[in-house]
Amino acid sequence: MGEIIAVTSGKGGVGKSSVCIHLGMMLASKGYKICLVDADLGLKNLDLMMGLDNRVIFDMQDVVEERCLLERALLQDKREKNLYLLPVCKGVNFSGIHQDDFVRVMRVLQNQFDYLFIDTPAGVESGFRFASSVAGRAIIVSNLDVSALQDADRVIGLLLKEGVAMLELVLNKISPRAIDKGMCVKIEDATSWLAIPLLGYIVEDARMQSCNNRGLPIAVARDSQLYHCFDVLARRFLKEKVALPKLNERRFLSRIFAT
């Protein structure tokens, strides 16, 4: 039976959906069958970022209301045959799905996929509550801004209250220069503050937004910095003993991330 993971954050704009897509794509490239469930209602954009927006015809709400079979609502990625997307709803109206419906569909998907990643809304909207009710593991995405870390800390408390015991942190949009100049919280201070294991970090890259807008995830480019970051992230997610690069050693970074 597959594992269900909630991918969440306390603050919008930290790159939660990008992390969800790229981690899923990296795992799919390693042979795992992956389903991304877009439960970020109102701000749903996984279909756009994956270049699948024109293919969305059915969603989970159609499945629940018996307008189509679950297989018709699943969209296969254009690049990775093991990666699929399930939109929860095409619009912002979530009234047609109750928590029991959501859980039932997720249990069916567990028998079809190795990993299910639920992209949740930032905060405590319905999508967040539904995901936390069924996930046994959660990835909290944040950057090194104080406000983002404060909100992430609040979300960690909510997840623990819901009984999601396995929590892991991904720090996104990491800039070694900003850390060196004291313009943001240090990684070790952020992990100490949130007190959950650091799964990985993703370096800041100006190309990310452009690629997301074009539906072309940058993780497919093997010579990119982001590919290396997501490869390490995926391997650590799979419990491989892989060390993180030491950000305070610039020569080490330039050697690892030479393009």
Task: Kindly report the spatial arrangement of strands forming the biggest sheet.
Answer: 3-4-2-5-1-6-7-8
Number of strands: 8
Overall mean pLDDT score?
87
Secondary-structure element string: EHEHHHEEHEHEHEHHEHHH
What portion of residues is helical? Answer: 40-55%
Care to describe what's here?
This protein has helices at residues 16-29, 46-49, 60-64, 70-73, 99-110, 126-134, 146-161, 176-180, 187-194, 207-213, 225-237, 250-256; strands at residues 3-8, 34-38, 75-76, 83-87, 115-119, 137-142, 166-174, 198-203. It has 259 residues and is an alpha/beta fold. It has a single domain (3-256), classed as Rossmann fold (3-Layer(aba) Sandwich). It has an eight-stranded mixed beta sheet with strand order 3-4-2-5-1-6-7-8, sandwiched between helices. Strand 3 and strand 4 form a beta hairpin. Helix 1 crosses helix 11 and helix 5 crosses helix 6 (126-134). It starts with a strand and ends with a helix. Mean pLDDT is 87; it is low at 248-259.
Reconstruct the topology from this structure.
Layout: E1 3-8, H1 16-29, E2 34-38, H2 46-49, H3 60-64, H4 70-73, E3 75-76, E4 83-87, H5 99-110, E5 115-119, H6 126-134, E6 137-142, H7 146-161, E7 166-174, H8 176-180, H9 187-194, E8 198-203, H10 207-213, H11 225-237, H12 250-256
GO molecular function: ATP binding; ATP hydrolysis activity
Pfam families: ParA
Keywords: ATP-binding, Cell cycle, Cell division, Nucleotide-binding, Septation
